[in-house]
Design goal:
It is a single chain. This protein has one domain (35-245): Hypothetical protein, similar to alpha- acetolactate decarboxylase, domain 2 (60s Ribosomal Protein L30, Chain: A). A hairpin with a 6-residue loop joins strand 5 and strand 6 (94-98). By secondary structure, it is of the alpha+beta class. The protein has helices at residues 2-26, 41-44, 128-142, 178-181, and strands at 35-37, 52-53, 62-67, 74-78, 81-87, 94-98, 104-105, 108-112, 116-121, 150-166, 183-199, 214-220, 226-234, 240-245. Residues 1-28 have low confidence and may be disordered. The chain contains four helices and 14 strands. The radius of gyration is 20 Å and the shape is globular. Strands 1-8-3-4-5-6 form a six-stranded antiparallel beta sheet, with no helix packed on it. Strands 9, 10, 11, 12, 13 and 14 form a six-stranded antiparallel beta sheet that branches.
């Protein structure tokens, strides 16, 4: 009798665990894992070859960012829809186009996120360092494990900022500074934008820079300008909405 009760108890425990996991899956709340292919340091080493092709990744609720193979633009994937930000041949006018399925990235950081929770950042955001700090604080308060890498989205109005698009031309030598030499910088003034970003304390030179824990790509509401975010001051008169994977 005792062994029978123990077996029944064990079965019930397994059932509850399974049902709990199934419920999280059914409600779009399965654990979100940040993945990456290649590394930012590849560029510094002069290696501009692709590490991944977009159409090899699971598309459902995919969010991703990275540079195009051979530094021919920037990639932003928003909920499974891939876009390529690049410059016109004169390198003066940016544009955004729907990315071809065979688009390749030197490195790519990505996650499949079925559902998000929204919080409003109440403090002023005068620069990237403040933004990084606030994202970490709000994520921790929301229950995100900030010791692990996590994705985030932002919706805000840029008062002033600076972005860039990697656009290597045929006259630029491929050296250890090619990543800087290929950048076309783009000032941003009084523009509403959406942002895809990734936060990590453990991936500097992999998918964040050596002096930062965040990597962000933006797409302006004009839809014709997107890129990598370098500097930002958000408009104090409009809310800054931060989206984090639903817990």
């Amino acid at each position: 009798m005792k062994h029978t009760v123990m077996r029944i108890g064990l079965r019930m425990f397994i059932l509850f665990v399974f049902l709990g996991f199934y419920s999280r899956e059914a409600n779009g709340q399965a654990e979100v894992k940040v993945k990456f292919a290649g590394a930012m340091m590849n560029i510094r080493q002069g290696n501009l070859k692709a590490s991944v092709m977009l159409d090899t990744l699971p598309k459902e609720h995919l969010f991703a960012i990275g540079p195009v193979e051979n530094l021919q633009g920037e990639i932003i994937v928003w909920d499974g829809k891939p876009f390529k930000a690049a410059m016109m041949p004169d390198r003066k006018q940016p544009f955004v186009e729907k990315a071809p399925a065979n688009l390749k990235a030197i490195f790519l950081v990505y996650a499949n996120v079925p559902a998000w929770d929204t919080v409003v950042i109440k403090e002023p955001v005068p620069d990237m360092a403040t933004l990084e700090k606030l994202i970490g604080q709000y994520a921790h308060a929301q229950g995100t494990d900030t010791a692990q890498a996590f994705p985030f989205l932002l919706f805000a109005k840029i008062e002033k900022g600076l972005g860039h698009i990697q656009m290597l031309d045929s006259t630029t030598a491929i050296t250890t500074t090619v990543g800087d030499d290929a950048k076309v910088f783009l000032p941003i003034v009084n523009q509403r934008s959406q942002f895809v970003g990734f936060y990590s304390h453990h991936h500097q030179r992999v998918f964040t820079h050596h002096d930062s824990f965040i990597h962000i790509h933006y797409r302006l509401y004009t839809k014709y300008h997107a890129g990598h975010l370098d500097e930002v001051t958000f408009d104090k008169g409009e809310p800054v909405r931060l989206l984090l994977p639903r817990k």
